[in-house]
Structures are given as C-alpha cells and as structure tokens.
Amino acid sequence: RVPCLELGRLGDSDEEDGNSYVPYSRGYPHTCPLDSSSDWRTSLQMPSAQHLLSQQHSVLEQKTIPENLPSPTEKYKLKYRQYEADLKEEYKQYSERIAEKKKDRLQCPEASIKGTQLEDGHNGDLTALDEKALLQQCYTSKPYNMQHSIRKSEAEDVAAERRKQAVVEQVMVDQLSRQVNLQCTTTVFLREEFRAVISDPEQSTRADVSEEARGLLGLGTTPMRFRKRTLHETIIRTKSGLTENMLSNKLRFDSRIISRNGRDACRELIGFFFAYDRSLTVYEFRQFGKNRTNALPFIQKGVYQHQRGQRKGKAYDFSDFYIGANLTFRSVDHNLPDSVKQNPVLTLRVISIDETAMDFLKASSMEFKEECSKQVITDSRVFKKIQGILRETLSKRGVRVITGLGKYFQHIDKNRNGFLTQADFKEALKVFHLEVPEEDFESLWLILDDSKSGKVDYGEFIRAIVGEMNEYRKAFVRKAYMKLDFNKTGSVPMVDIRKCYCAKKHPLVLAGKATEEEIKSSFLETLGESCSNPNEVSYSEFEDYYEGLSIGIMDDDDFVNILRNPWGI
Length: 569
Fold this sequence. Notes:
Layout: H1 40-43, H2 52-61, H3 74-107, H4 111-115, H5 128-133, H6 146-198, H7 206-214, H8 244-248, E1 250-257, H9 262-265, E2 268-274, E3 279-288, E4 292-302, E5 326-330, H10 338-341, E6 345-353, H11 355-364, H12 374-412, E7 419-421, H13 422-431, H14 438-448, E8 455-457, H15 458-466, H16 471-484, E9 491-493, H17 494-500, H18 507-510, H19 516-529, E10 536-538, H20 539-551, H21 556-567
Antiparallel strand pairs: 1-2, 1-6, 2-3, 3-4, 5-6, 7-8, 9-10
Organism: Anseranas semipalmata (Magpie goose)
Keywords: Calcium, Coiled coil, Metal-binding, Repeat
Pfam families: EF-hand_7 (PF13499), PH_CAYP2 (PF25348)
C-alpha cells in the first residue's frame, strides 16, 4: 500500500528558490467535486484572459485550501501581492494601447496610408490612385523564415526538374521513334527500288564498261550486267542513322511566348538545340490535375532562321541562345493555336538555359562565336537613352502610365491585331505627358519598324520606351497569375482576386496603422482602374500593373516579396 501523505508535516524552507515559485492561484482547481450528471467539458473549460483577475479573486475567496495545510508565510504573501500588482499593470497598459489604436482608426482611417507616401515631398503630380498603388511597394520583408524558404525553394526546384526530365525523355522517344519509322519506310521503299534497279542492265559501273571495252576483263570473267548483284553493289546508298548519343549532344532552354494573351503567355515551353545538325525543337509541358502530365511538340524539329532583326534570314546557332534572347518563327509554318497564329511572327523569349550543357558545347565546338554587331549595340543605346529620360517620370506613377498606355492602345486598335502607326504612338506620348525628343523617336521607330510596314506592335513599343522586368521577376509574376488562373483561361474574375489577396503581412497592418481591408481595397481599386473590364483581370493587365511597381524597386528580392507576401507563392 502507498502510505498516506501527511500534509501537516510540510513546512517552509529558506533554501527554496523563490524565483521558481508559482502562486497557487494561477492554477484553476475544482472548487467542488465533479458530479456524474455534470458535463466534464464544462468543468475543464479554461477562463478567458479578460476575466483572469476576477477569477483569481474568486479562487482566493473560495475554500480550496485543505484544512490541515499550514497558512503561507509572510514571504510568499508578499511575492503574491507583487505578482498580482504586476499583472494588473500589464493588463491596464495593454487595454490602453488597444483603445488608442481603435480611436486613431475611427478618427482618420486613411491618414496613416497617405502619411506613408513620398517622404521626399515630391507628390505634386501624384493622384490618389498613385498613392494607393505605391502601398504595394511596402512588402519588402521576407514572408518566410530561412528554413521555410529553403524547403520551399528546394521543393520548387525538384518539381521543375521533374517537368524538364519528363520533356527530355519525351523528346528522345519521339526523335528515336521518328528515326525508326523513317528507317522502316526507307526499307520498304528500297525493296521496291531494288527490284527495279537490279533488273536495270545499265547498272554496270563506268569502270567496268571501260575495262570491257579495252578487253581488260580476263577470260571467264562475267560482265557486271550478267552478274548477280546485291544492294551494296548498286548506286543506291543509305544515310547514317540517328543515334541516342547524337541526340544527347544538345542545349536545353526554357522559353515563353511574348503575347498579351494570358493563356499563351503562361504556356510552359521547353526547347532543345541539337549540335549535330543545328536544328531545334520546342515542346509544351501540360499538366492535367495532380498526377497526369504530357509533353507535346510545339515547334517541330528542324533548321530555322531568324525572321526579324539584324540576323534576319540567318540560321540559329549557339550564340543566339542566352537569357533574354528572342527566337522568331513564321506562324504559318507550324501547327499552332489560332490565338498564336493571329500574329504572323511568333516570338519566343528565352528565360533560362542549361549552363552546364552550354559550357560543354562551347568547349567542344570550334565554330562557336560570341559576338555582338555594332548595330545591336547602337540599338541598345537608343533604348537605354529613352528609358533613362522617362525613368524619373515613371518612378512614382509607373502603374498608372503603363496600364493606361495598354488600355489606350487597345481602345484605338480598331483591327484588334496589336499593330499601330507612328502617328498613334506620338499621340499616346502626348496624352500621357511622356516627352521624347523627336530625333530619338525617329531612331526608335527605325529600329522597331524593321519590316518597313509603317506599323509596330504596341506591346513591343511599350517595352522599348519603358523597359521591362528581368526574367527572374517575370517568372514570379507568372507564378502568381497561374495560381489565380488555375483553369488557364487567360483571365481571372475580380472576385477570385479579392478572395486570394492577403494583407496580413503588410507593414502598415503589422504596425497597427491600417487594417487589412484598407490595404486590400486600395489594391483592388488601383488594379480595377488598370483593367479594361473592371470585373476581370487579364494576364497582360496583371503584368503591366507589376511592371509599373517594378520601376521604383531596384532589388530583385524586394520585388519578389511584393508578390510572395500577398499571394503566398
């Protein structure tokens, strides 16, 4: 048997550590025995923090101390009184802070938002929409801790590598299968050809004919036309077959379609440039649900030439593949979707390449030339000069100007083909107060209108005068939009954007200077103003919005946090 505990023998000791003492009242003992008819959940329910003091007083008043337990000494009574006083003071200070924040929000809910804008004081040209749009630039803190970020990045890299590996395997299977089918077709053709050739009396070689004419053929030697001939003795020759080793000597690159159509712009394209014959092919990776995937050819394997620019008409080589390079193809030459065929020239932007394969091919290829013509350098200087002139103007109102230009060009584009004249572009610059010197504008027009058609794609014009985000930033913009447009329709209802946008990690919300609803409303208002249809957002409008925000942010990580915090990517 376990001996009974005699509580009367317990006493205080001066050697006990006073810091480890917790007052008895901090617990929540039962003041009455549990009854079988009472609900045990009610008896175990914890009190709320707001009623903590009242419950402590009630616990003291109730007889919860056994009768045979000695009363606490003066030392512990003093400690408990100090603890009770500290708890009351902390709760009082907390209540005052909450009341002060509520009072500030009721008095001026938008004062905290406006007060955070433009510390330098240059806000004369800004509108209320500009100020609300600049609120999105405050998301500069990292949304995740370092360990979470590493795990998330590794998981994304693994998923991307699996997609690429699936496409690589599909390309190898398609090309080798194509070669096998070609060989089978060639074999059948050669059988029929051989029957005709083998019976042809003119199959004797010229050497045999000349020797026979000179009488050099010895006695007993039968002329070639009377001999039994096999396939290798005829004039038919077979070509060398394509092997897996030849196909493995390739450069892999990721690309995207430069288009204002959201469905086309978000297509996942993976291309391959083969070293053995300077041919290339592009595949599209598709995912149906969580487990079903497929890789289909988007550009069939072949040798292609540039369709635009200074290298127009020249075949592609290794020097044409780098991050940011444009690959152009004739749309009519390929079996493409109707939305892509609307533009006579399909333009693919290289967004990443396999650096390991590129280094290997550079080392093994003696013909690799990495050069940049003088004309390309001159064109780049013209772009940078105009962008430098407009950068100061666009640094604070980039969202309104870039999205406004897109809406303006769509409105005046009566043919809906994306091309406008020189007069249209000049008028647009005047409307949006973008001053470009006439000489620089003429130089820009000569570069863009390389076909001398008198019209230029207005998306290309905006990228030329404003510049564009690097591919690292654009990748996160596409990732955020694809999370919203999970059906890949090319447009997202504003209702879905309201549901997905989260402002919990906005600095003003964390500091108590603004509510989540205020930040969300300011974002939705500015985004809705940038859309031609306020009830839905297309990919081009979504990209233009963040293109305007990108102008005032120099660091790539800060820009990425603008997307990661509200969208959770």
